[in-house]
Design goal:
- This protein has helices at residues 2-21, 36-40, 88-93; strands spanning 50-54, 60-68, 71-76.
- Mean pLDDT is 74; it is low at 21-26 and 83-95.
- The protein is 33% helix and 21% strand.
- Strand 2 (60-68) and strand 3 form a beta hairpin.
- Strands 1-2-3 form a three-stranded antiparallel sheet.
- It is of the alpha+beta class and 95 residues long.
């Protein structure tokens, strides 16, 4: 009887961990999408506009509207972006 319970618990844990790993990334190539608040903040703004938005966690961020993958998105100040390489304008300034 004890063995049946142990096997059942192990099977349940295996199933639940599989569900956690099976979550789809936001894009097919594994890249994360910006939060909808970052997209909404730039809907009626030109590229380069200074905006602020509230994150899903409740933080208010100052950002700049930047064109990413043909979509205008509010990119927070100091954000490193994809792969930690920084925004192109930061690289051009030199450290």
């Amino acid at each position: 009887m004890k063995r049946v319970i142990v096997v059942g618990v192990c099977a349940s844990l295996l199933f639940l961990s599989g569900l956690a790993l099976a979550q789809k990334p936001s894009k097919g190539n594994g890249e994360r999408q910006p939060p909808k608040e970052a997209i909404t903040a730039c809907e009626s703004q030109p590229e380069g506009a200074a905006v602020s938005f509230t994150t899903p966690r409740g933080d208010t961020l100052s950002a700049t509207c930047t064109l990413l993958d043909e979509q205008l998105v509010a990119v927070p100040e100091g954000h490193k972006g994809r792969g930690g390489k920084g925004r192109p304008d930061e690289a051009a300034q030199g450290d």
